[in-house]
Description:
Chain A contains 14 helices and 2 strands.
Amino acid sequence: MLTYILRRILFMVPITLAISLVTFIIIQLPPGDFVTALSAQMSENNEQIDPATLEALRQRYGFDQPMIVQYWKWITNIVLYGDFGQSFEWNRPVSDLIWERLGLTLVVSFATLIFVWVLAFPIGIYSAVRQYSWGDYIATFFGFIGLAVPNFLLALVLMYFTSRYMGANVGGLFSADYVNADWSWGRIVDLMNHLWVPVIVLGTGGTAALIRVMRANLLDELQKPYVEMARARGLSETWLLLKYPVRVALNPFISTLGWILPTLVSGAVVTAIVLSLPTSGPLLLNALFAQDMYLAGSFILLLSILTLIGTLISDLLLAWLDPRIRYD
Amino acid sequence: MNDLIKVEGLRTHFFTDEGVVKAVDGVEFSIPMGKTVCVVGESGSGKSMTGRSILNMIPYPGRVLEGAVHWRPNGAAPIDLLSLDPKGRAIRAIRGKDIALISQEPMAALSPVHTIGNQMVETIRMHLGLSKSEARQRAVEMLDKVGIPRPADRLDSYAFELSGGMRQRVCIALAVACEPKLLIADEPTTALDVTTQANILDLFRQLRDDMGVSILFITHDLGVVAEIADEVVVMYLGQVVEQGPVRQIFHDPLHPYTRALLGSVPRLSRNRKERLATIHGMVPSPFERPSGCLFHPRCDVAESGLCDRVMPALTRTPTGRAVRCVKAEASHE
Amino acid sequence: MTEAAIDRPGDAPAGEKKSVAVSGQWRLIWLRFRRHKLAFWSGVIVIAIYLVAAFSDFLAPTTANHYAAQYTYAPPQRVKLFGQDAQGQRHLFYVNDYVVTVDSIALTRNFEVDESAVIGLGFFVKGEPYRLWGLVPMERRLFGPKEAGQPFYLFGADRLGRDVFSRTVHGTRVSMSIGLIGVAISLALGILLGGISGLLGGWVDEVIQRTIEFLKAIPTIPLWMGLAAAIPLNIQPLIVYFWITVILSLIGWTDIARIVRGRFLALKTEDFVTAARLDGCGQQRIIWRHMVPSFMSHLIASTTLAIPAMILAETALSFLGIGLRPPVVSWGVLLKESQSILAVSNAPWLFLPGLAVIIAVLSLNFLGDGLRDAADPYGR
């Protein structure tokens, strides 16, 4: 087991490096650089900028050097000093900007994950055990709707209805009083009051998908002889259901953690922009538009690492739960 | 009348989207105390579902339509197992304790994510009300009894760590752990290789002699039948076509189907140039059951106008046998 | 428990349904698919949607970018089949005109339905000239106001007074084709790389598998956002369309490649493949005649299920403003109009293109599910 964990963690290193390189290439892809974007923006506002100043900026940011050198500087600074570089647009270190937002992204994703599991688990079991019942049809129907409605549309519709019928503005994660306040009990309560909207928006798709996964897995397991044999040993229906097939069907459920986290992080990006959440999404989008490359790059890199860690946790959980994997 | 269990007029049908499948359609037989009854038939003859019906454990979309399973464990008034609630306490107290099931697939009959001990202790504690350590002790004894080496260590193994033969032994240990009176063994040797098969059959015989357990042995293998059976029930398309003591069935089969089955078994004594006989035709689709006698399209002695019109009744002979064939009756009178 | 008479009907061979037994794999799939009502009707809807995509010029009452400033945010009209106008004249198939009042303070237009003013509708009416598929010059449209130029807003109007219904119909072409082409690229890449991976094995397999793992580790939306932001703003819409498709299929191929690889690996040791090899079939023949057909149906089902994901992705990217951009009309571009909550609370009908997305994605999902069930020989 220990070697398995070590192997998995070691395996993450080259993948992370590869991701950082690809990320860097992607954020370098747009023609021009931040300075070009800046001068374009300024000339749009009818401001003139001295070409010499531009050149000086370029040199200061190191844009005149070959890409591989820039990459090397960036990655070594991250690895050695935890320095993610400077955001050109905000004129502040990237790490200043990133942590709170990344933390909130994680809070939203995690809350959604709990929501998804709490909902999908019992509904999935019910749907499989009472296959073709009305409850199953209803769950399946809502499941499909949940899969088919784009997150941002759901967010918009929810905003429309709450603002129209509840008179509340559900955007953001905090009320005006708390946006810039320090962390306190009141701020946490305020966060909880706002959190449910993004959680519902983000969770619907995942819940729908997980109900289908759980239902399909459990239907497969219910057919297996060990269930019948447990019944033939005189166990009660509820007990045997929960102890055997649900337990086995749990494994694929756990492994969904590996892909539900990336989807949540991805979904959170779009939803956050609609709901104007102070998470990573809006900042990333702006950074991409402004070619604020260290900010954008660090975001993509950190979101990817978050995904990798999610996959790792799900694999470890799976190995812990399933002796067939553990003993491999 | 020392029958442990008596099955009467059993009809179990499956209501699928494609139509009704008459898996069991008029089955009756009884199992005497301490004897082994073999149910023989091809795939799809309903023999497995007969076994499941006795435990009142028919999977959806199946249903027992008619019939009774009279259970008389100790000479008291019989209980009709089919009249009990299939999920209720009464039948659950019988399942696993008085009547135990052994499945065809030892590979899949044990939970892949629980240890063997976990499943054994669970069953023993539930039915015998022992403490955890007592139950564990008993589980070790049982594993030892079915011939598993180092039983105490094995208790903490998972099913996938054992070989097929070992797994089947574990399944048997699990089944006999609460000293059942009836063992329903559903093709317990089919998935095993020949040597292991022989060992497992020995184990069954030994259990029958040691514990006095009655066995309902479901199989399609006539070789196995000859080894273990006292009584034989031959099934075809959900019906009993012939029934009788094993010697008489083998030496003097009355039903053309039984004769055909016996003819398709290779024998050492037979002339080497003789071709192995096969039963011509195929088992018909469950949705297109023939009219009249179900076997007539494949029967050598079928008489048109008679066999394709009239469904023969299961007739008892004075010698304690039963057969469902018009021609057989005629030849015996 | 493989015994019992219920045993899959397919198992008890011959006797049963001779017509089925001799009919080939595809016919079997079709028969099974027909029985799956939801999937079948979803298939019909999918075909209908693609027909709308093909003939959108003819089906939409106006061209995609026809605007009328005086009808800014006009609400949807109801089509009436029978009724009378102010003069008591009877009409069939018409809509009512608006009465427009301008709120001089808020500078908004208020629309009221004028029950007395009738705009007659007709089929095959003349409208603005257009070219079908950019080739055939035409004037007639399937339906619309009898007198060209009269207001006809089934789904209401947007901030420029453009007809949301017509734009949704026009958007069908781009949104649905992007899914189709994206999946085609994914399929080609997936079969090629998955096939190579499964057939060759060794280090090639290792490299391809690691690449797939790597691609899957990057969260898709940030990756897409990064790539889409790299598309220059000033290039032709058609090229943007092409690049977006390529970006979307960048992830899509990995699933297909995994399926193909898995199948090839499993099939390598199958008896029928060994038999074909012993019969002296060449490698190519074994692959194309024996192996590929045995998982093609499965692949088609997976592919169908990949299309809706692409449609949703395009919608999301365009919605964010980094996918397709006006003047291209796609469902995502249309939904971008509904981005501001202010616009939407005044004109909730701007959500209606979302309905098209949902219907398309739902029916593609149902269709894919049905196909998968039908294609699975061991399915229930």
